[in-house]
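note to self: dont lose this again. the chain is below, predicted strucutre after it. 175 aa total, dont forget to put it in the shared folder this time
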Amino acid sequence: MTDLADAVGRAVISAAGVDGAEAIGVREHLALIAASARAEDDARAILLRSVAAARAGGASWALIGGELGMSRQAAQQRFGGVSGPEDVGDAERWLGPVTAFDEMAELEIAGRAGWHTVEAGMLAHRMVRTATQWEHRRILWRGSLASEEAEGWRIGCRAFPWIYLIRDRGIPVAS
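---
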């Protein structure tokens, strides 16, 4: 078993609430099935976001397909058909399309206008508007964010392999 599979297995057992007992009953088996299904859904979402991030970073469908053991056409058919999100109103909107190369500049502009990210999707960010300006920061996914939280940052959203941090600047938006 790989280190990653071992870590996922431990996480599933923990999420299922199964203790270290050697013998488990039907209830524990069912809890393991439910936790495994949630882990599968989470892993699928991570894969989708990884592919989107790779495309935004300039990777070709051929390179992505090669990593997944499939053809370029199969990779594009499986992952390339996600359409962009719709606009959702005055207090909420989608910013995009953006790529890993231009999204931080776009988030900076949006932040000065009072928008902050609450979700990142396929080449887009769902934004919420407030009366104050916001800062955005993108970091690689990791466990502890204690140093960032000590500086006033909080998680806007997670989009593997990134975590998008936001911080209210406390400055009113210019009208």
